[in-house]
Amino acid sequence: MTISLSRVESHLKVTGGAVYAADNAATAYGYLLTSTIAFGTVTTMDTAAAQAAPGVFAVYTPFNPLKLYGYGDGSTDETAPVLQDNNVRYNGQVIGMVVADTFEHARDAASLVSTTYDAKPGTVNFAAGVPTATPLGAPVEVLAPGVPSIDDALAASDVTVSAVYTTPHQHHNPMEPHAAVAVWTDDRLTLYTATQGVMNVVSHIARALGVDQSKVHVVNPYVGGAFGGKIGNWAHVPLAAAAVRALSRPVKVALTREQTFAVSGHRPPSHQTVTLGAAKDGTLVVVKHDGISGKSQSGPSSENVANHSLTAYAAQNLHVSRAIVSLDVSAMTPMRRPVSRTARSRWRAPWTSWRSS
């Protein structure tokens, strides 16, 4: 079956007519400062040279922050509001922002900021933590009548096979890096940003700024690639929104390609042990799936590894367990992949992505 889709945006995208978030005009440009240690605290930030640099409007740090509040829910965003303390939770965490009249002035001034840390050992080795991973509740089991345990079901199978599968940290890196342009008119904020969840941005920015949601308008006609990486409301968005209120001028903050590896989350590593039991005719009788994933201590979300085995296979005996290894790394966020023409036809829906967990 072939599905014909009308690509209504194609002409604008291939001719440069599509206006993405960072294409909107601003009179001030923010450049993010990120940590160079994995764990510890920022002890000092010497910003004098940066503040005296050409075109600089402001330098924000944990010692001179823009006031922001936490989002207060369990989404994929970071739990701690940006710049509200001097703790470093992972390498590449946003610890400051320079705002200037051009991107180049902001970037150059950022290079003049001198930062010192009290570094402490961070937990970043996922494989080392697998043997002592923390269970997420009791395993889920479905057993055929008269079968005392999943291991008994495996022992009674005619054929068994077991294998371990691992996946590494993975990063999205869309063609369009994350960006936000904030414009404050009277008492209303207009925010041009690349996002997969417009209402998520509205609610979170309203909380971060301490204003009513009716005061926040989010514009996002195009997304230049996302695959889950633009679900979260990352640090550049609340910083742009707070800076425009403080400076009374439109502010643009765009991540560099390097910064997208840390600031905008990632897919965590996994360690999965799958054991199958089958009858002689090949009928699948047992599925035992033990999944372990990394979990950032900076965000509330974790990957649901192993869960799909509860619904994907018609085995009489199922066992699924989940566990996590807590790591000092950037927050976890969903990751998707493009769907093939075959898969799209099979599901009979014009999907462009689905979750691969």
Features:
single chain, 357 residues, alpha+beta, Aldehyde Oxidoreductase, domain 4, seven-stranded mixed beta sheet, six-stranded mixed beta sheet, 18% helix, elongated
SSE blueprint and pairings:
Elements: H1 10-15, E1 28-34, E2 40-46, H2 48-51, E3 56-60, E4 87-88, E5 94-100, H3 103-110, E6 114-119, H4 126-129, E7 134-135, E8 140-142, H5 150-155, E9 159-167, E10 179-185, E11 188-193, H6 198-209, E12 216-219, H7 236-247, E13 251-254, E14 270-278, E15 284-296, H8 309-312, E16 317-327, E17 336-338, H9 341-347, E18 353-355
Parallel strand pairs: 1-13, 11-12, 15-16
Antiparallel strand pairs: 1-5, 2-4, 2-6, 3-5, 7-16, 8-16, 9-14, 10-11, 10-13, 14-15, 17-18
Characterize the structure shown.
The protein is of the alpha+beta class and 357 residues long. The chain has a domain at 126-170 and 266-355: Aldehyde oxidase/xanthine dehydrogenase, molybdopterin binding domain (Aldehyde Oxidoreductase, domain 4), CATH 3.30.365. It is 18% helix and 30% strand. It has helices at residues 10-15, 48-51, 103-110, 126-129, 150-155, 198-209, 236-247, 309-312, 341-347, and strands spanning 28-34, 40-46, 56-60, 87-88, 94-100, 114-119, 134-135, 140-142, 159-167, 179-185, 188-193, 216-219, 251-254, 270-278, 284-296, 317-327, 336-338, 353-355. The strands form four sheets. The protein has a seven-stranded mixed β-sheet, with helices on both faces. The protein is elongated, with a radius of gyration of 24 Å. The relative contact order is 0.20. Residues 339-357 have low confidence and may be disordered.
